Amino acid sequence: MSQVLLIEDDPAVREGLHLALTRQGHGVRAVETGEQGLAALDGVDVVVLDLMLPGMDGFEVCRRIRATGTLPIIMVTARGDDMDVVAGLEAGADDYVVKPVQPRVLEARIRAVLRRSAESTGATDVERHGELEIDRGALVVRRAGEPVALSPTELRLLLELSGAPGRVRSRQQLLEAVWDHGFLGDSRLVDACVQRLRSKIDSDPPRYIQTVRGFGYRFGPL
Fold first, then answer.
1. Under CATH, which number does the domain 126-219 receive?
2. Which stretch of DSSP H or E encloses residue 77?
3. Residue whose C-alpha is closest to residue 141's, from 90, 70, 88, 72
4. Could you tell me if 113 and 119 are in contact, meaning their C-beta atoms sit under 8 angstroms apart?
5. Separation CA 5–CA 44 (nearest Å)
6. Is the Cβ–Cβ distance between 106 and 186 less than 8 Å?
7. CA-to-CA distance for 222 and 180, rounded, in angstroms?
8. Spatial separation of the C-alpha atoms in residues 131 and 103, rounded to whole Å
9. C-beta neighbour count of 21 within 10 angstroms
């Protein structure tokens, strides 16, 4: 049974999601502040995080979680068409849902991030691209010999792009392959994750993950 940490200050929303996720078979730990959430991370498999929290807001909570590990984070935002989404993704969130939250949508997002977190390609070869080393069997990435800490989504994106060097992948193709999102997926998920991944493995200008304007991205060391 997966363990979900729900950080939500609205009592009605918190209680409703707690009940829905419990019925869907998850263990749920529900708290109302960011400080309480950071103190309750032990043993958690995924965090569902409201951005608009009193005191320490969700952006800061997200940054602190991401700075110390690869725990999957799904953010909850009241608006889906403004800078909150971009800022939350740039802070390290793996996915997002918009209020009012539909429990079935949240459940699908949770299962998707948990699947990405646990998935292994089964390959045993080690790829080397310049100073970048990708061990697909061990799911370990090194840059100049040093391990690189990637979130499950960042790792899945890198594996997807590096699996076919030189091949251009559209944002929609990446949404379907990495996030399991269909036609209505949000391309901001891809752009924000690429930005975070580049900050960890790439240089300026990018050497490994290159933007193909008007279409998407390709992997290919220059």
1. 1.10.10.10
2. strand 73-77
3. 70
4. no
5. 6
6. no
7. 30
8. 44
9. 21
Show me where the domains of the chain are located.
3-118, 126-219
For residue 184, count CB atoms less than 10 angstroms from its CB and return exposed for 0-12, middle for 13-18, buried for 19 or more: exposed
Question: In this structure, which CATH number among 2.40.100.10, 3.20.20.80, 3.40.50.2300, 3.40.50.170 belongs to the domain 3-118?
Answer: 3.40.50.2300
Per-residue pLDDT of the chain (222 residues; tens, 9 = 90+): 799 999 999 999 999 999 999 999 999 999 999 999 999 999 999 999 999 999 999 999 999 999 888 899 999 988 665 678 888 888 889 999 988 899 999 998 998 888 877 764 444 468 888 889 998 878 889 999 899 988 888 999 999 999 888 899 999 999 988 888 765 568 888 999 999 999 999 888 888 999 999 899 999 865
Q: Note the pTM of the prediction, 2 decimals.
A: 0.72
Q: β-pairing, 27-31 with 3-7? A: parallel
Residues 6+ positions from 169 with CB-CB distance below 8 Å:
160, 161, 177, 216, 217, 218
Beta-carbon count within 10 A of 167 CB: 12
Which value, to the nearest 10 degrees, does the dihedral of the CA atoms of residues 198, 203, 208, 213 take?
70
Residues, the chain: 222
Q: Which residues pair with 95 in a beta bridge?
A: 74
Which SS3 state, helix, strand or coil, does residue 170 take?
strand
Q: Which residues contact 17 (CB under 8 A, 6 or more apart)?
A: 6, 8, 28, 30, 48, 101, 103, 106
Taking each helix axis as running N to C, give the angle between helix 152-162 and helix 103-118, from 0 to 180 degrees, rounded to the nearest 10: 60
